[in-house]
Amino acid sequence: MLFIPRQPGAPIKDPKHTAAIALAAVVIAALALGPTMYFAGGFGWLDSLAYGLLIGAAVTAFLIVVGVLDRAASRLFRHVFHRSSGSGASAMQAPRHPRRLLELLDEVEAGLREARRWQADPPDLRVRYTSGELTHALQAPGFELWLQCVFLPNARDAVECGSVPRSSAVGVMAMREFDGQDDEPGVARILRALSAFDVEINR
Questions:
Q1: How much is the pTM?
Q2: By CB distance 3.0 to 4.6 Å, which of 5, 18, 61, 174 could disulfide with 194?
Q3: Which ranges constitute the DSSP H helices of the chain?
Q4: Domain edges within the chain
Q5: Per residue of the chain (203 residues), what is the pLDDT tens digit?
Q6: Whether the Cβ atoms of residue 107 and residue 101 lie closer than 8 Å to each other
Q7: CA atoms of 178 and 169, how far apart (whole Å)
């Protein structure tokens, strides 16, 4: 979700390791298929080894393509629904109207206070996210608490540092979380502010 720090200790894939694994998979497939084709198919040793290498390479290439497509689909899903816990430098931008963003964040806080959903002594959820104990907004004790303890402080820090995500859907999430509560004091105010925040970020 937006403005949640990356979970520490996440492995970073090395392309050299991927290539080595792919090569090993081809060799293993050739060694496994070669004798089978030699004894069962009546092929010569060289033909069996060549066919084994060819089949092993084809299977490995298929698995690599499937893996690449799976990662691409995962990135698209995270981009659309903002479940990712981290973002790269290319996903960041300088805020176009930082003062306006800070005003909207203040409006969210005011709405939470008006709705009596602002805690005077909240838990330090940012530490729990940073430590990896929590990884996304749905694991917080409540959406309002997540807004207060994670989203607002992280968003303010990001705006003040001049580096915010290129996209936001926190307003969409808020509409889902507050569905049917629009008439309650402060809720409509929160929804308007978060929706406007999305518009400013997504321009």
A1: 0.55
A2: 174
A3: 15-41, 45-81, 98-114, 125-130, 143-146, 152-161, 170-177, 187-202
A4: 15-81, 89-202
A5: 455 433 333 333 445 555 666 677 667 766 666 676 666 666 676 776 676 777 777 777 766 665 655 555 444 444 443 333 344 444 788 888 999 999 999 999 999 999 999 999 888 877 777 777 776 655 667 889 889 988 899 899 999 999 899 889 999 999 999 998 988 989 999 999 999 999 999 98
A6: no
A7: 14
